[in-house]
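Subject: Sanity check before I submit

Could someone independently write out the structure tokens for this chain? I want to compare against mine line by line before I put it in a report. The sequence has 100 residues.
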Amino acid sequence: MRYRLTFFAGLALGYVLGTRAGREQYEKLRKAARSVAQNPAVRNTAESTAQQTRQYAGKAFHSVSEKVGTKVPDSVAGRVRSLRERGGGPEDDDWGTSNT
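---
Independent answer below. Compare away.
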């Protein structure tokens, strides 16, 4: 109950502070966030990080599955399999950036 009360108090405080800042400040923050997200360097970094994460997840899955054998739940195996299938090479790069 205490956590809910803290959450709602934070939500109310954020609303009050947000309305005092006004729509103009909100639009400035939104514009800045969009320009950062559309930056090619940021997009390249995000994509390469996602690819590395998928590779490490695959390696970790193989390492763990060798140790535990068939005790890996099907839901975990399916999730790792779907991540591996989703992450291909540079030809699957939907960001429009190179992987160099």
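---
OP: Matches mine. For the report I'm noting this point. The chain has three helices and no strands.
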